[in-house]
Amino acid sequence: MLRPDEFPEDSDFDVRLADRTPLPPCTSATRRDEIGGLPPREGVCVPLEAGPAWSAQARMERAVRSGRAGNALERKNMLRRIRHALASGAALEKICAANDEELLAPARAAQRSDPRLDWLVEMAPRWRTNGDKTLV
Fold first, then answer.
1. pTM for this entry
2. CB atoms within 10 A of CB 110
3. Residue bearing the bigger pLDDT, 26 or 36
């Protein structure tokens, strides 16, 4: 626990999560220079090859972009759906209505074949073996 004092003995962490009770903030305000510095962060561009693995993602994005956006509210909702679709099929599914099969079907298909996840599954053992700390 980052802050065990935030959870007295009579408070159950799992119960708070199940009840959707907000958890206390667990971030630190400590700055890099206050603790003697940290190695610089290194962003890495990940080249993912275009190909059949991306077809489900492309179908999902086309389905979202093909929606009607006649007024400002519809455009706002479409942009929200596009942002979620670009994140993942699971993110899009989470904001779809239960009867919206035009978006749910491609979102679920995209979840089953996300090439980004395949890449992560391939790379994670290498990072662990090398002792790399990785933020995804």
1. 0.57
2. 25
3. 36
